[in-house]
Amino acid sequence: MAKLPNQRWHIAPPAPEGVKALVAATGLSPLLAQVLWNRGLETPGTAAIHIDPELAQLPSPLEEFADLGRAVAILEEAIAQQDPILICGDYDADGMTSTALLIRALRHFGAKIDYAIPSRMHEGYGMNNRIVEDCAQSGVGVIITVDNGIMAHEPVQLAVDLGLSVIITDHHDLPPELPAADAILNPKLLAEDSPYRSLAGVGVAYVLAVATGQAVGKLTGLTATLLDLCTLGTIADLAALNGVNRRWVKRGLKSLPRSPLAGVQALIQQAGSEENKKPMHPDMIGFRLGPRINAIGRIGDPCTVIELLTTDDPSLAFERAMVCATTNQRRQQLCEQTEQEAVALVEDTPLPWERDRVLVVYKSDWHHGVIGIVASRLVERYGVPVFICTQENATTIRGSARSIPEFHVAQALEFCHDCLIKHGGHQAAGGFSVTVEQFPTFQNKLSEFAHQCLEPEHLKPLISIDVQADFDQLTPQLYGEIESLQPWGMGMPIPIFWTPGVRILEQQVVKGNHLRLKLAQGDRVLGAIAWRKGDYFPLPSPVDLAYKLDENHWQGQTTLQLEIIGIRATTATPNPFLTTFTHRNRQYQCSFAQAGQELRIKNDQNQVLAVQQGQRVGLLGESRATATPVDVTKPHFYSLIKAAIAALNP
Question: Half-sphere exposure of residue 431, counting CA atoms within 13 Å on the CB side?
Fold first, then answer.
């Protein structure tokens, strides 16, 4: 028997009445209306705001963030007194764009500004005592953390004891007790239904910058520039694209191709995008710009990105963008090597992840900067929470975690806190350090936590599917609808369709261990790509497929293409109701579709008459998208339908 991916499929239940109301209110197709329903947009009002986020009435950030006014007052005084301000950043894309955003804003406001980012290799994540002591010695009056700080109790207390003001801007999960900072801006402190609840670190920095600019009267001409950086960081950090994130990112994607920032233009040029008149596609950031920025934080010097995003010199920006590109190539090579070694450890050792309900994998010489990416790939491969570890020094092991929906990483790390040096994170991801001596205890406690929240059936990659679709429904018009609802992303994932009983006409493994396919359902043939699925070649036929609808651009031609994400043994039974017949000296083919609810009759000119059960109007044409309505009660159609039904029911 052919090998197929070991996946669990969750298909959203249909909601015909709700979908009907959304179709009437929005004009979207039933398929897309079902997708919106699945995303919790169950009323015409919520759907309308999702389609056009500018319709939402937003509360002022000053009303939502209790400490925002206090933070602005501290910065106003520092700017007026020319007290030096230090931004303590982070080395991922969110932290670096946050740092660059506040540097640009505070310089524009006239502040004396500098920044520090801890060394990933030697210090690890977050504000530390060394940075605080350096600030005190150099006369810094205010420290602003970006994308970190909420867990930095000891360094914050040290800063307060040394007479420094501390403003924490962060978005990570809250500890049981908050640090003793002068002001804390964290969306996790807000109500669950706050439109600001899903802000990334760069979004919180944007809120602080805009509020400060309004207070000092120097915001004019700056907001659009800051929004470009906010959009970059929000998408690259995989923040949920709901609430205010959706409004700001949708605006930012329109302006990014024409951004006045030299660094953004250099990144776009290096990535090879020439669509300077269209809104930027989120995938351009997620797969091309974001990885270039993140690669620097993982295996390079974060100063490269800060210079890239704060310079107004195009030549310097281009040089820094080149460094980002070459560093990203090296990061890709490290990821491939590390992933291969990790898979070999899992499968050859073997590691008892099914027994433990969590996968802990360790090798002493893996690079700290890429283990998080590899952890995500292992989650995708095995469908289990992954904690991947490497040696930090002779006595300390350092790790990165990625998870599945049923397992909360931050809660798991907190459960193990008594055997960890430090830890932090959120539901889906986290980081930690543990002594070599405590590492076995840590593994045992992780397994104990996993057994509290996971059952064996959870330990498969989850494929969340929106709605069943026939190939005839996959049209350029449907793709256009999907694109009109951009940005899709975290919290608002792109639609996943599925089709049962798909025939595989052609398949081949291509470079990168991907599968390229030619698929058919009925008479409709479509191309497809299955990323990183070459190990399953050859696939049996037919199969059930779950997929995203995409476009393929090749040699000046644009065609629809399926991006396969789920494959399983078919649940469809062969259609016995498919036959040919002759009517009035012409040859026809006929079949039932849509679970027997639709009769389709195809003539020798490839025109199809589609008639829904009980309907007086059918569709006639070469495709559903271009078909015209016809009255099937007219004698010619009526006699043809009778002949087809007779052929299908001999």
Answer: 17
Query: 3-state class of 198 per DSSP?
Result: coil
609: β partners: 601, 620
Q: Which residue has the tokens 């006639």?
A: 620
Q: Residue 212: what residue type?
A: T
CA neighbor of 547 nearest in space, from 497, 478, 479:
497
The CA distances from residue 323 to 69, 234, 259, 309, 333, in Å, are 39, 22, 21, 13, 16
Distance CA 14, CA 467 (A): 7
Let me know how long the chain is.
Answer: 650
CA angle 402, 151, 111 (to 5 degrees): 115
Residue with tokens 């809104």: 279
Q: Hey, how many other C-beta atoms are within 10 angstroms of the C-beta on 364?
A: 9
Q: CA-CA distances (angstroms) from residue 82 to 102, 112, 252, 549?
A: 16, 6, 32, 55
DSSP-assigned beta bridge partners for residue 84:
none
- Whose tokens are 């932290």? That residue is 95
Q: Which two tokens stand for residue 232?
A: 């970059």
Cβ distance 300 to 327 under 8 Å? yes
Q: Report the C-alpha gap between 19 and 37 in whole angstroms.
A: 7
Place of tokens 């499968």: 347
Q: Which of 9, 2, 8 is nearest to 497 (CA)?
A: 9
From the number of C-beta atoms within 10 Å of its C-beta (0-12, 13-18, 19+), residue 401 rates as: buried
Confidence band, pLDDT 50/70/90 cuts, at residue 650:
low
pLDDT (tens digit per residue) in 603-645? 888 889 999 877 889 999 887 767 889 999 999 999 999 888 8
CA atoms of 509 and 538, how far apart (whole Å) = 9
Cis peptide, bond prior to residue 440, ω within 30 of zero:
no
Question: Is the bond leading into 118 cis (omega within 30 degrees of zero)?
Answer: no
Is cis: bond before 542, omega within 30 of 0? yes
SS3 181: coil
Q: How far apart are CA 221 and CA 210, in angstroms?
A: 11
- On the 0-12 / 13-18 / 19+ scale of CB atoms within 10 A, 570 is middle
As given in the structure block, the two tokens for residue 97 are 């764009």
Amino acid occupying residue 378: L
The conformation of residue 92, written as its DSSP 8-state character, comes to S
**Ranges of H-type helices in 145-286:** 153-161, 201-216, 223-236, 243-255, 262-271, 282-284
- 507: its two tokens: 């398949």
Identify whether the C-beta of residue 630 lies closer than 8 Å to the C-beta of residue 641.
Answer: no
Amino acid symbol at 475: T
Residue 338's contacts (CB-CB under 8 Å, 6 or more residues apart) are 366, 367, 370, 371, 374
Going from the C-alpha of 555 to that of each of 514, 531, 552, 559, the distances in angstroms are 20, 21, 10, 11
Mean pLDDT of all residues in 105-113: 97
In DSSP terms, 166 is beta-bridged to 143
Q: CA-to-CA distance for 402 and 648, rounded, in angstroms?
A: 53
Instruction: Name the pTM for this structure.
Output: 0.83
pLDDT at position 574: 60
User: Is the predicted pLDDT of residue 168 greater than 90, yes or no?
Assistant: yes
Q: In DSSP terms, which residues pair with 620 in a beta bridge?
A: 609, 628
User: Cβ distance 147 to 171 under 8 Å?
Assistant: yes
Rounding to the nearest 10 degrees, give the CA dihedral for residues 71, 75, 81, 83: 100
Helix (H, G, I), strand (E, B) or coil at 640: helix
∠ Cα 6 11 16 (to 5°): 165
